[in-house]
Amino acid sequence: MTGHPVPDVLAHLAGTWHVERTVRDLTEGPEGRFTGTTRFTPLPAPDDGGLLHHESGTFTWRGTARPAERTLRFLPGDEPGTARVEFADGRPFHDLDLRTGRHTADHPCVADLYRGEFAVYDEDRWRTSWRVGGPAKDLLLVTEYRRSPRGGGSSGRRDRSG
Description:
Elements: H1 9-13, E1 15-25, E2 31-42, E3 51-61, E4 64-76, E5 83-87, E6 92-96, E7 102-109, E8 112-122, E9 125-133, E10 138-147
Antiparallel strand pairs: 1-2, 1-10, 2-3, 3-4, 4-5, 5-6, 7-8, 8-9, 9-10
């Protein structure tokens, strides 16, 4: 599948997305599932132009459902239309360039390596696939994002053309 080009990743992501994620332990076999919402909202100054990514929902693992959430910061990247993704505390996570509709990113974490593959299907659907490998982990996390109609559809996106 070829990717759907995204000229400006931050403008594209702004709004609310429904999220479904599977988490597979490739060593032991169990599979978990996260279902929830991700909201990309404008960051306040001094990070004007960036987005706060807040994900919340329910993660079910081995039959037990628990609330789960995470926060990331998406900041303008070095190239126009790209982003730099950070953890909430400002530590670097990965770059994101969806201008071709596809992107691959690596994130070393102690002895583990996270390799992410991103694909945009169309204006309202995209996917991430993270393969996590190392001495303690052998995981595959696949996340499907669908733009939420209540998130504003096209009207939820920001015009960053000038």
